[in-house]
Amino acid sequence: HIQAVIFDLDGVITDTAEYHYLAWKKLADELNIPFNRNFNEALKGVSRMDSLKKIISRAQPAPSFSEDELNRLADRKNEYYKEYIQQITPDDLLPGITDLMKEIKQKGIKIGLASASKNAMVVLEKLGITSFFDGIVDAATIEHGKPDPEIFLAAARQLHAESASCVGIEDAEAGIQAIKAAGMFAVGIGTADKMKEAGLRVEGTQKLSFIKIESAYLLKNK
Ligand code: BG6
Ligand code: MG
User: What does this protein need as cofactor (predicted)?
Assistant: First the structure.
């Protein structure tokens, strides 16, 4: 049976994926680097610095920045992002998420967070859901970002759960890869083309339910 459900944050619990996009878009525009929603898909789940490097490498010709300059650019994006997340309230929980978490709790199953974001705690506080979590991985302690399984394995360890008995929920391709590399069951939220690798895919969070997740998980483990 399922021992733990490990959630991604941005784009799964709340739509901060949109704020990350808007903040990067603002920075890219200032740098005159082409940037759009389609390319932004490749940044989902990717750390702040790695995202910045991916954006810069798209410029023609790609400018070269010193480490100091890179840090300042990453900080600038984060300032834009922090402004956006100020406005978050519990109303910004994506549909179905609170009910799903309550259901998981009622079953005595653990809830974990595996977010690459260093702003995760602030966002959880603003949403008012910090107390739902039995374990929250600090992104600053993770050496290898998604698609590496490290962050999901760290979450399972915190929850004293075995990988094979964990379910991960993600909206990013890199995140689904990370869940699967950790030996967990992957639930993907998004379009079929992006979520090909997921064990269960739903179009949006309103379509999530524990019974759906459990049935798919049990079928997979038969
Ligand atoms: C992930 C987001 O959750 O966190 C990425 O999907 C983001 O878009 C990453 O770059 C790092 O977030 P932060 O808040 O530490 O810049
Ligand atoms: Mg995400």
Answer: Mg(2+)
What SS3 string covers 82-140?
HHHHCCCCHHHECCCHHHHHHHHHHCCCEEEECCCCCCHHHHHHHHCCHHHCCEECCHH
Burial group, residue 54, by CB count within 10 angstroms (0-12, 13-18, 19+):
middle
How far is 16 from 31, CA to CA, in rounded Å? 23
For residue 205, the CA-to-ligand 1 centroid distance in Å is 19
Work out whether strand 166-170 and strand 135-136 pair parallel, antiparallel, or are unpaired.
Answer: unpaired
* Prediction pTM value: 0.95
Strand, coil or helix: 71: helix
Alpha-carbon span 172 to 146, nearest angstrom: 9
Told to judge if 8 belongs to the known catalytic residues of this protein, a careful annotator would answer: yes
The response to whether residue 14 sits with its C-beta less than 6 Å from ligand 1 reads no
Q: What is the pLDDT of residues 12-50, one digit of tens each?
A: 999 999 999 999 999 999 999 999 999 999 999 999 999
